[in-house]
Each structure stands twice: as C-alpha cells, then as structure tokens.
Amino acid sequence: METVFDPEGFRVELRTWLRDSLPGVWGGARPPVRPSEADDMAMRKRFDQALYAAGWGALSWPVAYGGQDAPVEAERVLAEECAAAAAPERYNRIGLGIVAPALIHYGSATQKERYLRPLLAAEEIWCQGFSEPNAGSDLASLATRARLVDGRWKITGQKVWTTLSTIADHCFLLARTGGPDSGHRGITAFIVPMDQPGVTIRPIRQINDSTEFSEVFFDDAEPADEPVIGEVDRGWQLAMTVLSYERSTNLLNRQTRLSVTVDALRRAVRDQGPEAPEVLVDDLVDVWIRSEALGCAVREHLAEMADGLPPSIGNNATKVYWSETYQALGDVGLALRGITTDAGGGLLDEEPDWYLYYLGSRAASIYAGTDEIQRNIIAERGLGLPRYSA
Amino acid sequence: MSAPSLDPTARELVEALAHFLAKEAPLARSLQASETADGFDRESFQGLAELGFFGVTSDAAVGGLELAPAVRGAFCVEAGRVLLGGPWLEQLLAAGLLASVAGSELLEAVVGGSTLVSVPLLAESWARPATVELAAGQARFAGGACELGFATAVDGWLVPARGERGGEVVLVHLAADADRASERRRWSDVWQSHEVDLGGAEGAVVARLDAAAVATHGLDVARLLACVSVGATEALLDLTVDFLGGREQFGRPLGSFQALQHRMADVYIDLEHTRSLVRAAAASVGADDEVRAVMAKVAADRLGVTAAQSALQAHGGLGFTWELPVHHYLKEALRRRSLPRPTARYQQDLRASLIEYRI
Description:
The complex is a heterodimer.
Chain A (H helix, E strand, L loop, with lengths): L6 H20 L10 H18 L17 H13 L8 H14 L2 H12 L5 E4 L15 E5 L2 E12 L6 E7 L10 E7 L5 E5 L9 E9 L6 E2 L5 H37 L6 H29 L6 H25 L16 H8 L9 H12 L8
Chain B lengths: L7 H17 L2 H7 L8 H9 L18 H13 L6 H11 L6 H8 L4 E2 L4 H5 L2 E6 L2 E4 L3 E5 L6 E8 L2 E10 L5 E3 L9 E5 L4 E8 L1 H36 L1 E2 L2 E2 L4 H25 L7 H25 L11 H12 L5 H14 L3
Parallel strand pairs in B: 1-5, 2-5
Antiparallel strand pairs in B: 2-3, 3-9, 4-8, 5-6, 6-9, 7-8, 10-11
Helix pairs in contact in B: 1-4, 4-8, 4-9, 5-6, 8-9, 8-10, 8-11, 9-10, 10-11, 10-12
C-alpha cells in the first residue's frame, strides 16, 4: 500500500478482487437464499483465508503482525465493498475483534509471535469466555477461578453464550485470580486451549435454532504456556479497553451490512410499490432515515479514530441506535413478507429469510453490552449524571 | 459543538460565535428584547454581522467570508443553542438568495448588516408567489399577501413574485411599510411575524429564480432549520442534565434515578445520530444530496419535539411554567416543525421517493 492511501483506487482494486474471488468463496454462484449454518461457516472460513492470502485480512494492523498499517478509511472501504458484494462475514470474528487488539496492545512479544499470524489466517479460531450464568451484564462479578498449583494455572468454572466455542482452538478467558469479593480488581485475562479433558462444551439451541453459542465448563483446565495477557489481576481494564475498540470497529461492519439490507428492501418495495401498504412504507422510511443517520455517525466515529482519539461515548450511543434500527428493519421486513399481492404471490419471497432475520436481530440489544448497560454508561460517564448508589 | 470535519480556522470562528452568543445574545436577552417595539436586539444583530454571520458563504467582494456551507450550518447550530431571536435566519437566507446577483449593493448591505431584510419562510409563498406587473425592472403587486418575520422592524422585504404571463419567479425588493403589516398571533417567544398585504406595493426586481432555484431555496431553509434544532437540543439536554444533577427528591439527586437517566440517554442517542445526519446534510447546498437534506429535516424536527417533551417531563411541574426556559425550546421546536413546510410533507416526499426509487 502506498504511503498516501487512495481510497477510490483501493475501492476499484477491491471490487475487482471480490468479483474474481467470491465465486470460489461461495463455492459457486452467489447464494440465492440464506445458506445453512454449516455452509455459511464454510464460506466464512474460505473468505477469511482469501483475505489473508490477498494481504487484506487486517488492513489497519501494523505491518509486523500481517496488517497493512492502512488508515481506518481503508477498513470502511473494505466493509462497504464486502457488504455490497454479499461477501460472507468474518469467520474468526472474535479473534479479529477482541483477541488480536488485546494481544497487540497488551501481549508479550512471544504471544504476538505465537498467535497473531495463525489467527489472521483463520488457522486457529478463537472464542471469548466472558459471560457466566451469574455474570452477564454484571460481568465484574464473574466467578470462574484461576489458581496456581505447583506453578501452573488451573481453571474451574462455567462460561455461557460462548460464540464459536464448538470450533475454537483457543479461548480468551476472564477468570478470578483475586478473592471472591475482589470485583473488577481481581480479574485476569488468560489464553486457554479448548481441546483438553478439562473443557466440556454443551451447545445451546437458540431462538432461531442456531447453536452458534454454547455453555463451556472448565474443570481444572490448563491454560497455554505463558497464558496471561497483560498482568495478573489487571484483566478488567484490558477487557474494557478492547471491548470499546471492538465496538467501534464492529459498528462499521454492522452499519454497512444494515445499509445494504435497507437498500435491498427499498428495491423490493419499489418493485411492488403499489401493493405495499402505506403504513409499512412509512415504517421503512423511518428505518431508511435511521440507516442514513447511522452511516453518518459511524463515519464521524471513524474520523475520530483516524485522529488517534479513544472511542468516544458516541460509540455507546451508536450501539443502541444500531440495534434499534436493525430490529425495526427486521420488523418491517417480516411485516412486508406477510403481504400477499393481488397476483397471489408474496410481496417478499426473496432473501433474506425475514423470519430468521427478525429472530436473529432480537439478540442485538442484548449482546456486546445490553442496550440498558449502554444507557447507564451514557448517563453516568457521558452526561455525568450521578450514580444510582449516590 | 463544532463539527469534526471543520478546519481549524472555521472551528475558531464557530467558537468565537458561540462565545459571542453566550455573552451578548443569551436566551434571556432575546426574551427581553421581544417585549420591545422592534421585537429583537439590534445591538447583538450588528455584532453578528461583524462576526461575518450573514456573509459566511458569500464572496469576499461583498464582504463575505467565502467559507464552506458546513460552516454556515455550524453557525446555525450555535444560534439554535441560545434560541436566538430576531430576523437572523431571514437575513442569512436573503444573502443566499442575492448571491447570484453580480455587483449587488443590496447584498453587500445585507452581509454587512447595514440593511435588514425579511423574506418569507413558508414554502407556500415560494410555490405560489403573488402576481406582479413587470415593467423596466420594476414590479407592482396586483394583490396577495405573505407572512414575514419582523416585517415592521426591518428595512426591507424580499418577496417572491411572478409576472402575469407566468415565467420565472422574480425577487422583489420592497421598502418595509408598517401600514401593510398586521401582527399575527404570537406563539413563539423570540420570533414575531406579520401578515403583509402586498396589493399595490411596488419595488425593484433584484433577482430572477428558475424553478430549480426556488426548490433548492426551500431545501436550504430545511437544512438550516435542522441545524437550529440540533443546537437547541444540545443546549436543552445540558440544561436538563444540570437540573437533574442538582434537584433532590427522596434524599438523592433526581438524576440518579435510572428511569430519568435512561430517558436522558435516549435523548442523547437520538441527538448524536441526528446531529451526524444534519452535519452531513449541511455540507451540501442547493439540489445536491436532496434526499439527505429532507431526511435531516424530518429527523431534526422529530428530535426537537421529542427531546423537548423529555426535558419538560424531567423538570416536572417546573417545566410546565415560565419559571424555567424549557417551554421555549418546545415552542421553538414546534415552530421549526412547521417551516418551511410541515414535516409531514417531507415524510410524504420520502415515501414517494422510496416507492419510485428516484434516488
């Protein structure tokens, strides 16, 4: 990549590459309907590998770790073109979104050397062991214990809603190393191999019949050599920092995907214009406005990032705005699908499967910090309102 | 709050304007001035002119700053923060309307603030302008009427009209004439307007506008009003958060109750995204990016009213009274929502463009 980044030149190059590469990634023509979960995962994996081979797996990472040291603008172009070309989403997304930033910012030289390249190449898949049955929104109360036995760490406890755990090679796990009441001051970030006797995975059937996430039980599980990322008892700050960066980069992908789906629904409604009930068209207009506003906000957040500023509270607001827009889109898409035309057909028989889209979108206001937690953060840290315990 | 895309010079100007408005034209001053004969504070109006407010995008040859449209938008955000009174938006729009006229002395006087002019804000006056007889660059109104802000305090009026045989819209410069103006029932506490009887009025034709120019003028009004809504909501949210942090009930600050915290967070979330959309819209002028301008207006109108309602609720009984300024924000949001066309008309436009997929 040139020293002066040329976004439009990159866009043209990328578009050609996507056109040439995607048939191989899809394993044929562009998938006409929503693929099965297994097919989707296979496509995602091939896409991660193709991006890695092209050198575009992590544009804004430092060159030393397989990135291009490209400006954030490049990530935006990539996200937009991938969304427009119906490219699969990223396979190793937990690794890319959370683990890699943690390693880059807090990991040792050995850890970076050992883990970053296989992560980027999708040779090693990561999951994230944060949430527990009794520590969801109240993450700092997590109870999974890590203790030193003869100089080796042993981990015991239960994690839940662990995305990608069934295929993961490593878990980026938060465990308690301080006393039971040490709160956020006694938490450490570990690397734990998933393929070992001490780890048991039990998939959970989700609302949409997917089993994308699982319960994971750790029973004297043994972490990797040099297993601690950052310092012992300092994992909370690390996790919060990494999550705030993840939020801002994820929002870019989420917003561009949403925008492409809104455009597709607008086209479908235009084609069936006279048949679409006005009340639903008005709902779609609202979603369309929100989608535009979301795009403008994400561009401003990226500009802040490009200026080297830490993620602002605006990113928390955008998480809520995005999840509400996504859910509203699912609602209007599903409602439009139920309309039959005078000709006897359905208004929206095409992809995506709006029922599954609707159901899947219900998770958006819960994961990545519930919308209520985001509102608490906005009120207390953004607006400076007094804490409830005051 | 200045937009991140503004360059440092523009940012400095916006900050200077914010400082000036906070000091010389706070809401209290506008309210006080609205009780005077003029209805607004001439001194701070002149101060605005000196800061380049009315000529922000005008050519340097007429005394303008030649800055990007985004800066004009940022200026309007600041005016919105203090709910600035007086015919400032009219004066700003007049400068825009006259921009295409080469060597206009009137434009120079408008930019410099030595001549105050009012223009009709309602799109209706532009879509169906009054009829005039045209002769030798002069126009005589056959009849008709329009609503003009501060019609009796300003020096002149710029009124759109159309010749008897149709054709382009012409902009007629009339000297203000108090006998033609009757004050309308006032709902706003910082803006007054008059119903102006145009029958028989005579003035010079100062500009000609084709259909596109008329349409884009309406879009510019919409963009600037959206900016005002953003500024007003920023200020109102600050004010409400301060109130909630200070007032105690049940032995603790109201702002520590989650029901109110989340209500304020929702205002912030809406503000944050509407602001981004409005900033993007305000970076364009004329017909460019028409859909975004319309979206910005719809979103900003909604933000202005819902945020004011939330603020009113958060203030409890005090919010329903003249003890506190909250009600002014609600009233101004309602006024902006009706200008230059009712929001519902813009929503209809968006529905039509979605179905026809014109964009």
